[in-house]
Structure of Aminotransferase:
Amino acid sequence: MLSRLSPQSPDKIIGLMQQFRADPRADKIDLGVGVYRDARGRTPVMRAVKAAEETLWRTQDSKGYVGIEGDPAFLEAIGTLVLGDAVPAERIAAVGTPGGTGAVRQALELVRLADAGARVFIPAPSWPNHAAIVNFLGLGEAAYRYYDAAAHALDLPGLLADLETTGPGDVVILHGCCHNPTGAELTLADWAAIAEVLGRTGALPLVDLAYLGFGDGLEADAAGLRLLAGALPEMLISVSCSKNFGLYRERVGAVLALSPDPAARDLVRGNLSNLNRQNFAFPPDHGARVVTGILGDAALRADWAAELETMRSRIETLRRTLADRLRDKSGSDRFAFLAGQKGLFSLIGATPDQVTAMRETHGVYLIGDGRINLAGLSENNIPKVAEAMLAAGL
Ligand code: LMR
């Protein structure tokens, strides 16, 4: 039976992670997978996480099952963190999931339960797993323009024109903030324009929120999706706590589904619960409980927000430092866009051959589409990365 399986090639991000680990060069630089790194290249356990874990270890007296939707206190805390008071609680159905990927998967499975023929509009470009999951589930895949590669900027007219072609049977994936892979952000006015179009076409937004806090800060990064939530009757949000709580391997995520009224909310909640039951039964609890402990304790929450802000501003500094170095070494402003973009990622405009040359000659690892993770930079390695980029002909 199992010999009938077809070989699978790893996702390009996961494949690069494996390649990097196998590279024996001591001075290799990982600008691949989207994890935060500090100045020493480590992905730290955040202070508030350590403290909340310690409390949990001391006080938790059972590892018995929690509800199929996850811990209600976690779902309430994450709903408030993401949505603030943009929508009343009776519009929200929420379930815990294994990480943000689990949340995207559950949200798209919910779509398939509602309409197996749904088309999912994905920004061009996007996180590769969006299209992979859409295709795996047998949903229709469509693209909308998002990024003008020549201008290194958002293509708002293209985006709006393409969203005009959507209809009630369609889903539109939007990145809540820190667009992956481009770092090109939507302004609040852009979100308002999207809300206006989707309000007319009836397409359902699925907002993927994996980097809350890494763009302009916790509140500013949630403002766009909150605007959308207040303007439209239905919306799905996939939330990840991997990056902003540094809980990657603990797999902490949630789906928030917004409905127009409590009866519709209950229908959605029942379907989400059933999907959890089918796919993994109970969502992982340890990391979710750590998040709840942090968000529910004023001192821990303040410390977490402060550490996240340090991480966010470090990435901003690294963006500026790399852009400055490239300007000095190239004598041109063609990399100035790096300083203005947001979050962990930017596309440096490298061809696949240039990506290979940077990896093979200089040990600088980036995704094949030219995406770099700015958090993989440090004061020490920026000169080498800039040199590798220019030597590759960028
Ligand atoms: C990334 O884009 O590198 C991260 O979101 C990690 C992942 O799961 O792909």
In short: Residues 236 and 257 are 5 Å apart (CA to CA). The chain has 14 helices and 13 strands. The mean pLDDT is 97.
